[in-house]
Design a protein that fits this description.
The protein is α+β, with helices and mostly antiparallel strands. It has 10 helices and 5 strands. It has 2 domains: 84 residues, DNA polymerase, domain 1; 137 residues, Cytidine Deaminase, domain 2.
Amino acid sequence: MVEKASVHKGEGHRQRLREKFLDSGLSGFHDYEVIELLLTLATPRKDCKEAAKAVLKKFETLQQALEASVNDLCSVDGVGPKNAFGIKLIKSVADRYLEKKVIMKDPLNNSKALLDYLYHSMGSKDRESFKVLFLDAKNRVTAVETLFTGTLSASSVYPREVVRAALDRSAAALIFAHNHPSGDSEPSPADYAITRQLLFACQTVGITVHEHIVIGSNQYFSFADQGHIAQMNREYRKNS
């Protein structure tokens, strides 16, 4: 008599989750169920629900779980190096996918794709980072680069390095973006000051600054939408 292969207690639940995803994507999934699906990829013979709930309890949100370091992920019971690798790989693939949707597109006429990319790549980071999008004469993004990374409260941004990077890439225009780890997208006095410095420095060499976006937690602040870029351009013309 041949014995049936043993089946772990979560096998039926896991299969239902996978079928649900294949039928309708992640619509209707709880965040812990998304994490659970990721954990199943490297854990073929073990129920992953409790480990997934522990991950969400520790990091509070799916976004913060995806941004967590490998060591922090591995500190959660039921999550090992293979699981952490899978989670970080998925995050990096998503970043690359969203970035490719921006490259060689006009972000001025496709703000949703730009904001999707910025939210995903910057919105949950615990340190400030400063990105520059380099645009050609037709306002198509030719490259995206994180030029500066700072502390929890500030990043040091050097206009000379921004201008050098733009000239190296033959950029005709730029869009700046940085995140606020606090989640509040309201710009600080320092944000206004560095935006003005960057705009004036770029104008000196004939490079246009279209925008500076501050990314918070599910919110953003646009210097252009609020009229600040236009006002700074008027100041530059008046003083030059």
